[in-house]
Design a protein that fits this description.
6 helices, 163 residues, single chain, mainly alpha
């Protein structure tokens, strides 16, 4: 199943990336996914869902932080390239797109790694009967790793930042 999840997550990431280059379709795609996910979670966490809601919660908890962050990063990388098309900073469009694509590659690379990590957790931990507390600890540790990577390690180290 982990291989299927890599395939599935890659499709979601590429869709978000590709549509985001065009701005409005990308914003629609991310908003649509947010509404569908939010609605699904809202329905599944209702008390009358009983065991189905508990199984859903148990399944999505562990891999959620990596997968949802990767989706947002995919959209961000696409938007970065789209902005290179619109805002050229005096360069011709081709050079601006090359510069924007070069700047977007680390973002897309981070999304790829996160999608793979999410797929491994989704394939090997999420469907198990491990206690929800254990899966919650994995989610918390994943979230802390994301904060450490993007906030602490992502701080500029002096000098001018490229815009």
């Amino acid at each position: 199943m982990a291989c299927f999840y890599v395939y599935n997550n890659a499709g979601i990431g590429l869709q978000c990336f590709g549509w985001s280059i065009l701005f409005l379709p990308g914003l629609f795609t991310i908003a649509y996914n947010a509404v569908v996910l939010g609605t699904s979670f809202g329905v599944m966490f209702r008390p009358e869902m009983g065991d189905a809601g508990i199984h859903f919660r148990d399944f999505v908890t562990a891999h959620g932080p990596f997968e949802l962050t990767a989706i947002i990063l995919s959209c961000g990388a696409g938007l970065r390239i789209g902005m290179g098309w619109v805002r050229t900073n005096g360069a011709d469009r081709f050079d601006s797109l090359v510069r924007a694509g070069t700047a977007a590659m680390p973002i897309a690379g981070a999304a790829t790694v996160l999608f793979c990590l999410a797929a491994l957790i989704e394939g090997f931990i999420s469907p198990t009967t491990l206690p929800w507390a254990f899966k919650g600890i994995i989610a918390v540790l994943s979230s802390l790793a994301l904060v450490a990577y993007f906030v602490v390690l992502g701080l500029p180290r002096g000098g001018a930042r490229e815009t």
